[in-house]
Amino acid sequence: MKNKTVKSALLGLAGVALVSAWALTPTTAEAAGAGVKPPSQNWSFNGIFGTFDRASAQRGFQVYKEVCASCHGMNLIAYRHLQQIGFSKEQVKVLAAEATVIDGPNDEGEMFERPGRPSDTLPEPFENKKAAAAANNGKAPPDLSLITKARSGGGDSIVRFSIAQPGGFALGADYIYALLTGYDDPPEGFDVPDGVAYNTYFPGHIIAMANPLSEDAVEYTDGTKATVEQMAWDLSTFFAWAAEPELEERKRLGVKVMLFLLVLTGMLYALKRQVWSDQKH
Which of 115, 145, 204, 217 is the most buried (most CB within 10 A)? Predict the structure, then answer.
C-alpha cells in the first residue's frame, strides 16, 4: 500500500512538471513569428490579485473613440459595459447618445437614424467589410474587441497563461503596447515600400497601418499628458479589459476556490489523523 501511494505521488508530480514545462514553452505561432519579442510590462491586472486600472481604461476608451474608431470597430462591446471601467450610468447615456445608429424598419418599412442607447454596441466605422477594405488599401482593419486575445498566443495557451501569466492575457497587452510604440525609422539597408511603415515589433517589420499615435493626439479629460507612451499604455489597458471583462470576477472566484480547498484539505488531514488514531487504540 505504501509503495502504491509513493508511486501515485511521483506520477502526480511528474504530471505537474510536464504541464508546467508545456505551459512555459512558446507556442508554435510565437516560435515561428519573425517579430521581436515585446518587453514584459508591469500591468495592474497582472497576478492573482491584479485589477484593471479604471482611470487608464477610461483614457484608453477616449483614445479609441477619438483616434482608432474611424477605422476599427469593437462590435462585442456595448456602451453599458463601460460602467465596468468606472463610467456612471449618466456618462454612459451621454456617450451612447453621441453615436448615430441605423435602426428599423419603422411602421412604414423604412430604416431610420436615432441617437445611440446604452444597449447599443460601439458603432462600426464602415457599412461592411468590403467597404472597409476598399478604404484601406484592400484590407479591412480588424475588430479590436478581442485583439489582446488574438495576440496572446492562441487558444492552446490557456494553461500557460494560467500558470506563467496569472494576469490573464498580459502577453497580448505587451504586444499591443510594443506595437503602438514600435514605429521607427528602418535600419540602414532595410527597404520599406511606399504606403507602409516600419515597426520594430510587427512580424516582418512591415506594417500596413500608419502610426496612429502622435504627441497630444487627444486632450485627456483628466488632465493627463497625452504622450505616445501614455496613450499606448491606456489603449492596451482598455483592449485588455475589452477582451476579458470578466477577469477580475474569475480571479475572485479562483481565490475563493483555493481557500475552500485549503480548508477542506485541513479538515481531511484532521479526519485522517483521527481515523488512524482510533485504529491504533
Answer: 145
- Which of 65-69, 155-159, 199-203, 204-208 shows the lowest mean pLDDT across its residues? 155-159
Residue 184 has pLDDT above 90, yes or no: yes
Quote the CA–CA distance of 275 and 266 in Å, as a whole number: 14
Q: Is residue 257 part of a domain?
A: no
Lowest mean pLDDT among 79-83, 171-175, 250-254: 250-254
What residue numbers bound the domain in which 128 lies? 2-77+121-245
Number of domains the chain contains:
2
Q: How far apart are CA 129 and CA 68, in angstroms?
A: 16
Residue 238: CATH number of its domain: 1.10.760.10
